[in-house]
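Write out the 3D structure for:
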Amino acid sequence: MEASTTAPEVRSDFAEGLRAIAPLVIAALPIGLVFGALAAQKGLSPFETMLMSSVVFAGGSQFVAIDFWADPVPWVAITISALLVTIRHVLMPASLGTKTRQMRFGKQLIAYGFLADEVWALSEHRARKGRVSFPFMMGLALPFYLNWLVMTGVGASLGTLLADLDPAKWGFDFAFPAIFIGLIMGFWQGKKTAAILGASGLAAVACKWFVPGAWYIAAGAVAGVAVAAITASDEAEVV
């Protein structure tokens, strides 16, 4: 059963979510523009691009889908690759389950439906300090979601103007990695985190080298989870 909250608490939690996500909204601006431009170059209209963003709402999966986009559309390849990229979205709600159990089930479903890596990471950080409320998660998710919709639409509208845009020239190609590096550093726990990241990176690179497709994402995830489980069991034995 969800604990009752007063209107001031709702406003305060929502405002905290807005403040927390604001820097990441700004960081995501160029990513949305680049994706929209790529979608336009593949023949998608601004409406189709925004429709895709509104339904999928997963930047990594959308970039993979656009990379595979052709005429006719290879639906099987796109679907499998997108699922591999977004398989982590199964784990994110699982990790937040016990931290949002005060929410009603319907609100949990809504909050989880808007989960992105950034929203999940900031919710986990909030859980270390206190309660993760529905207003807080909506304060994170809504501006991030609306920003993604608008900027991908703008990028698609300016697709012809941005056709010759070189993301590397302006540093846009590093926007995605920079965001994830920032999120990872927020969870840094010394050698334990280094071991997990090292195992995940090595597995992903090895798989990318020998196995075609997006299987390297799953390989990196499995290796990281395995090392995390091993280190956790070792700590438990020591205790």
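The two ends are 34 Å apart (CA to CA).
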